[in-house]
Amino acid sequence: MTEGIHLISNGKQSLEEFIKVSKAVSPYVNYIHIREKHRTDDELVEWISELVKNDISKGQLVMNERVELAVRTEIKGVQLTDHSEDVSSVRMKYPNLLIGRSVHSVEEAQDAAISGADYVIFGHIFKTNSKPGLLPRGLEQLGHLIKSVDIPVIAVGGITPKRVESVMTYGASGVAIMSGLIDSEKPIEEAKHFLGGVRDGSSR
Ligand SMILES: Cc1nc(C(=O)O)sc1CCOP(=O)(O)O
Distances in Å between the alpha carbon of 45 and those of 18, 61, 139, 182? Predict the structure, then answer.
């Protein structure tokens, strides 16, 4: 299942800081994405092994872009982008790997779906400091994109607990969150709010 809550690392925390947040929120989130573009493969292998030592399941971990590293470390999945290997070639090589694709248009989403992605992440929906200077795409575009594909669409960008219900009402299967959990002073409380929103929104 790809629905629910995806936590995404912000590329700015130390491993220790990220482990702290991950441990706190892991009971409330479905997936934990390691999105640390500037780090070496060796560093990321260490991230995975330390997260696992801290009771984060490999089944919860998703690696941004680095497919071979995800396969080698036997974690759950990869999040592909327009800079990474194609969905179709990854799907052909690794039939059982969870494959998400980050998309920014209906065309990209449809291509990902046809190519065998399990889900797409679409954004950014709301204005967010994590994507400075770029116009948000908004709920209407989210709703339109969701209707144009038959795989789950996860909403990303400026997601707060209060906004979860609105994206779920537009048909999202879940939300991906960076600052809403990473920068929170009370990540457990915040994660519970996010989870409440996802549950209420999806039961509509
Ligand atoms: C990782 C990411 N991808 C986006 C996209 O639009 O594809 S927006 C984003 C950052 C989301 O951060 P926050 O939860 O702090 O708004």
Answer: 14, 12, 37, 21
pLDDT in tens, 52-92: 999 999 999 999 999 999 999 999 999 999 999 999 999 99
Q: CA geometry: angle at 143 spanning 138 and 146, to 5°?
A: 125
The one-character DSSP state at 42 is H
> Which 3-state string (H, E, C) describes 77-104?
EEEECCCCCCHHHHHHHCCCCEEEEEEC
What ligand 1 atom has the least distance to the C-alpha of 157?
A: 16
Pair of tokens at residue 170? 């537009």
Contact 179, 129 (CB under 8 A): yes
Chain position carrying tokens 């573009």: 37
Q: Is 53 exposed, middle or buried (0-12, 13-18, 19+ CB in 10 A)?
A: exposed
Domain ranges of the chain: 4-202
Average pLDDT over residues 8-37: 97
Q: Ligand 1 test: best mutation among 7, 130, 163, most atoms within 8 Å of CB?
A: 130
Q: What is the CATH number of domain 4-202?
A: 3.20.20.70
